[in-house]
């Protein structure tokens, strides 16, 4: 059974910004090894993550992530079984000032969830748009 989880959270003081890039790559490699797809975006101290894959693996990983002291204020937006997966890959990006003015980013990321059911897609898109919009404030 495939399962998807989407959450937003905020980085804690245990996570210096200059370490983020290295961690994103490390976690991406682990996810690739476990066949977990989705995306993890970091922007202005906040995370946006979608995890998609075999249900037990995704739930187990999310348990670990929830206990991780490197972030707090975790808000889960989506947690549901899927008939088919939506992501081809695992995207991990640190959005920096240089990428702020790229309007194509939202549609590019939204493209990745187009295989999900319409309601889940809508939830993810709303949070993603808010996540990307507010980084410029
Ligand atoms: C916001 C956030 C997202 C994370 N995402 C992942 C992830 O996608 N994959 C992963 O393996 N670890 C991720 N981690 C790290 C896990 O919480 C945990 O440290 C890691 O899975 C432990 O791996 P280990 O038992 O191999 O040391 C994330 C941590 C945070 C704070």
From TrEMBL:
It comes from the Bacteria. Residues 2-93 form the BLUF domain. It holds the Pfam family BLUF. This is BLUF domain-containing protein. It comes from Salinimicrobium tongyeongense. The lineage of its organism: Bacteria, Pseudomonadati, Bacteroidota, Flavobacteriia, Flavobacteriales.
